Amino acid sequence: MTFACCESLTSVIIPNSVKEIGKHAFLGCHGLTSVVIPSSVASMGESVFGLCDSLTSVTFESGINVELGWYQFSSCPLKTVIGLTEGNIHADDKTRKLLEEVASHSFASYALPFVTKNVSQWQKKGEFETTQQYSARVNETTRSAKVAEWMDEARRQFLAKAQQDFSAFTLGDYDADRQVFVLSNSKDGEKSVKVDLSDAPAFKEKYSTATYNPTFVIKDDRAVLSDLGISVGGKTYTV
Q1: Where are the extended beta strands (E) located within 176-221?
Q2: DSSP state of 197
Q3: How are beta strands 189-194 and 211-219 bridged, if at all?
Q4: What is the per-residue pLDDT across 28-75, written as a single tens digit (0 to 9) for each?
Q5: What is the distance, to the nearest Å, from the Cα of residue 54 to the centroid of all Cα atoms in its chain?
């Protein structure tokens, strides 16, 4: 199997019969945006998806146990990694760290296994449940409702985690003409907060005691800071 430098390739679903993917199989496929790797695959050679500079989504199917070669996703702007669990993907430290980092920030990576696990448990027939009762409880309508319910719960948990992991902003310089302070952190970059000239000295002096009230939304599969209230010296400011 080799599609190296195939410019027209945009997505890949590898057949379940494939057990090994040779090195450089999809190297330099610049149009490739997503790939699904089946559980049958046990090994992938060096740099299978290297230089795929549009590849944003990788799905490892349930039950996979695969050995990844070096430079597996070099230069890939991954945003979503689905199916990564403890011990199922064997890779060099750099690749493993990349996959874990992407998965930890992706809503799809969090929600899909959460919803799948809950649906799987819910739709099991009970020992003391008749076939008629089971059919009434588990059907297309009730399954869709449960999926929506657990998707909402996954969204709530994902955003709650984003709030929990919120990083405080470092106070920068004050722009007296615009009457704003510049704030920054490693996750959200630079933000500006409006502070009247008369309040600016006290704001700067007491900023170390600031408390934050962040609000996150899901955008492009990420938890994104949408609003931020900062309380300093008894006053609340909106970023």
Answers
A1: 180-185, 189-194, 211-219
A2: T
A3: unpaired
A4: 999 999 999 999 999 999 999 999 999 999 999 989 999 999 999 989
A5: 17
Encoding tokens for residue 197?
A: 């000239």
For 68, the token pair is 């990844």
Q: How far is CA 166 from CA 161, 179, 233, in A?
A: 9, 26, 21
- Give every CB contact of residue 235 below 8 A, 6+ residues apart in sequence: 199
| Residues 79/55, Cβ–Cβ less than 8 Å | no
Buried b (16+ CB within 10 A) or exposed e, 194-220: ebeeeebeebeeebeebeeebebebee
What is the reported pLDDT for 12? 87
The phi-psi region of residue 81 (left if phi > 0; otherwise alpha if psi is between -120 and 50; otherwise beta) is beta
Place of tokens 């008894």: 234
d(CA 224, CA 65): 32
Overall average pLDDT of the 204-221 stretch: 94
Look at residue 159 in the predicted model and tell me its pLDDT: 96
HSE at residue 69, side-chain half, CA atoms within 13 A, is 16
